[in-house]
Design goal:
It is built from one helix and four strands; from the N terminus they run αββββ. It is of the alpha+beta class. It folds into two domains: 59 residues, no CATH class; 52 residues, no CATH class. The chain has a four-stranded antiparallel β-sheet, with no helix packed on it. Strand 3 and strand 4 form a beta hairpin. The longest helix has 21 residues. The termini are far apart.
Length: 121
């Protein structure tokens, strides 16, 4: 009989959840104190916000290299390197630097592999 997968979770997300839960249980036993368990998003991804004013790192689960954050009044915007992936330079929005949601890509089509974001000297 195969492993049971929670409704709405892919097999990979379910495996990641099981691995994370096993690691937390192991750390809890070795430290003799409770270790927070990662809350799950709708796709089974880890959520940093514990819901009680605390959070766990990393804020975003996955690979988001070279993040850049901009503040505009009460809003924060972030993008990260997407290298030659298209669409590229995904823009994220947050109000608290913990809960981020993707807005959309800054680059909707590939510019090739030899581009760099222009900057002033």
């Amino acid at each position: 009989m195969g492993a049971l997968i929670a409704p709405g979770l892919s097999a990979a997300a379910s495996a990641t959840q099981s691995r994370d839960d096993a690691l937390a249980a192991s750390q809890e036993r070795s430290a003799n104190q409770p270790v927070p368990v990662w809350p799950r998003g709708i796709e089974g991804q880890r959520k940093a916000d514990l819901g009680d004013g605390r959070y766990l790192n990393p804020i975003l689960s996955g690979d988001y290299p070279d993040p850049s954050v901009l503040k505009d009044d009460d809003d924060y915007y972030m993008t990260h390197s997407s290298f030659d992936a298209s669409p590229g330079l995904l823009i994220w929005h947050s109000r608290d630097l913990v809960n981020w949601r993707p807005i959309g890509p800054a680059l909707t089509q590939s510019l090739g592999t030899g581009f760099a974001v222009d900057r002033e000297a």
